[in-house]
Specification:
single chain; alpha/beta; Rossmann fold; five-stranded parallel sheet; globular
Length: 196
């Protein structure tokens, strides 16, 4: 089962994924977390981002490559038996590149090889809140509220076609966790195993 978490930088995706991972481990349900920047390509991508060497087209290709390497490490059996949680997936590629003026269909084509998520969440926070939550301990490309506003609008325009459930991310993390958990559990009760 593929569960994806989307939203602006610092919206709480990573914290939420860790909380869900801990919860499911406590009831002996197998999970796996997949994050950007952890493959060799991902690490190089991070370095290039820090050095300012990336343009939107290069980002589209490299993020897709990083995602492809991570998907190859997940077996068909894992997809059937585990909850695989993606801290960013294809909708991130669309929203962030669209905000930089790249054609949505072109980005969509590059990412068309990836399986659809079973369930996904868009954790919505304001651009100002994203900037406010940014700290030096995190790796984030520093973005302006204006740019983040474009990213947020891009996300909002693709929610339905990417089957993303809107979650108000301006609430306490415990409330968000309970919301998300109940939606995942509803999905699991109705669908059981992964839909092909």
């Amino acid at each position: 089962m593929i569960v994806i978490f989307e939203g602006l930088d610092n919206c709480g995706k990573t914290t939420l994924v860790q909380m869900l991972n801990k919860y499911y481990s406590s009831i002996e349900i197998e999970t796996e977390i997949s994050k950007e920047f952890e493959t060799n390509i991902g690490k190089e991508l991070k370095n290039m981002a820090k050095e300012g060497k990336l343009d939107p087209i290069l980002k589209a290709y490299l993020f897709a490559t990083d995602r492809y390497i991570r998907m190859k490490e997940i077996s068909k059996q894992d997809l059937e038996s585990k909850i695989i949680m993606f801290d960013r997936y294809v909708p991130s590629a669309l929203a962030y590149r669209m905000a930089e003026g790249v054609d949505k269909e072109w980005v969509s084509n590059i990412n068309s090889i990836f399986p659809k998520a079973d369930i996904g969440f868009f954790i919505d926070i304001s651009p100002d809140e994203s900037v406010k939550r940014n700290t030096d301990t995190k790796f984030n490309i520093k973005a302006t509220p204006e740019h983040l506003s474009k990213v947020r609008n891009s996300y909002l325009s693709i929610l339905d076609e990417n089957n993303l459930i809107y979650i108000n991310g301006m609430r306490p993390i415990e409330e968000i966790f309970n919301d998300v958990l109940s939606k995942i559990e509803e999905y699991r009760k109705v669908n059981g195993k992964r839909i092909k």
